[in-house]
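Q: Focus on the chain.
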Amino acid sequence: MTNQIFRLAFCLLTLFLIIPIVECQEATGKSDLRVLLVSHDPDNVRVPFPDMADERMVALYAERAELFEAMLREHFTSVRMVYGADYTTAMSDAVDVTLFDARPKALSQAERGKDPLTGETSYKPAEYLPRDFDRPALMIAENSPTIGEPLGLKLDWL
């Protein structure tokens, strides 16, 4: 009797271990996340730092959007790409995550000032997203501090 209970317990345990493994192997398809890629316009390449803007870097930025979108389509069922200048925050409401590989149009420009009494200089960075932006987003490379700092994010202070 003990031997039969042991066999039954062993079979049930094996079954509970095998089913998740089989399901994981079947789940190697694409993710159902809806992804929005805010990318570089190949017809209007803007390399973020002037000292990087050699011929090779400009060529890489020109093909970056197409290659990044193709890679995302391999892993996600719904991918939409928009160039930075064409992005609006309403677009992020229709997706699960927004990837910022390029900056959107500035909502307000950067401002530099100087106090006439003390001579202290001040700087207010340009704003690219509204302060109430609350959608899941990943900001790639220099976009993290550029887009994030005006929102109070400390992405480059690590």
Observations:
- The chain has one domain: 30-151.
- The chain has four helices and six strands.
- The longest helix spans residues 2-26.
